[in-house]
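WARN retry 2 of 3 for item q-0093 after timeout on previous attempt; input resubmitted unchanged.
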Amino acid sequence: NGVPRSLRAFIGEDLPAAPAGITVSADGLDAEISWQPVTSGAQGGYVDASAITYEVVRQPGDVAVASGLTVPSCHDIVDKMGVYTYMVTAVVEGRRGATAADTVIPAGAAGRSSPMKALRLRGTPLPDSLTA
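OK item q-0093 returned
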């Protein structure tokens, strides 16, 4: 009799991994959201990458921007300037994977270019001039 051993393995189809590389660029009230296509499972298991679709939701307000997307990008138009978070979820056969998010402040008047274009937030406090 040898030393006891164990092996753990995920069996079956996995849920899609969270989308990576989410970027949001803003010009006035328009936002372009893009991400890298999901090609793997959340647990490293099999997922049919050709069957993955995406849902995009904007916060605040839990606004459905798009669903059933087969390409890793979409466009949004917001009602007013503010801080918005875009959440992207990969879905395969009705099963939702993990959600990833990115935050952006659209800057500048609609239809006009702004030197700031967009201030991206990644855990960085806002300057006082933007929170007033």
